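User: Fold this; tokens only.

Assistant: Input:
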Amino acid sequence: MIAPQNPASARLDQLVRAEPLPAALRRTTIRPGRGSYGPFTHLLLLDHGEIAIEAAESARQIEGPAAAILPPGDSLLLQLGPGCGGWLLGMAPSMWAAAVGVRAESEFLVPIGTQLLIAPGLSQATAPDPFLLAERIGDELSRGAVGAQMAVLACLRLILLDIWRGSDIQPGLVGRGNEIHVLQAFRRLVELHFRSRLGVRDYAGLLGVSYDRLHRICRRNLQRSPLQLVHRRMMREAADWLERSGRSVQQIAHLLGFHDSAEFSHFFKRNSGLSPSAYRQQVRNQSTASRPATTSFADWP
């Protein structure tokens, strides 16, 4: 089984994908969200040709030049017409969070990672050329040079900005200061920093809100404290490593930012009722892994 993707240990090419669209002579079907790419958010850059997109309950036909942001999910289906040209890019959740960021402008980008979004008219005339940016991402992934992640994120941000500007999203309709937007920004920060063991006051400072306001927002909307939400994310990651990898408890503790395995074991047992070793053994004894309820991250907005 594929191990969870952890920026602390995963290679960049496990967190980002960049592939030219196949220029076939006949209609071609691609399922971008298959296998380990299921959680990825994908960017489709179509220079020329036609593509039919099926994502969950949405279906659209686009003609190049155009771009689309494709939400995560294994049901995503692309039907490429003959002779298509362009790029398919993908980002793991942690890279998506890093690319979108948490600044005020980032809140305008929140909807585009959760639904199918089309930007017609995107072309090489856009400065900088998004297709050259995609090519640069592919080159950075293949070379793996120093600073590759910084370069890839810079390219992804520019492409996202172009798609946002070329879409029909109206920034004026997005309310700043909305509690849901604060929660979404908090979630992205947690995705980026949960291994760093930041305190709730640190998160509040990065969000530009007070500790008390962040606490009230989380309690009012999710019936949990900010610290409980951070711990839920840590538990999901810990459970993934215990279920899907052969790493020792000490190694997993280190990956999650704990000082030692004893501290990690105490944390895991307090949140799940089982020690890490007992949890791993339970999973091995079951044909289908049943995780503790505390590992869920799905109730975030």
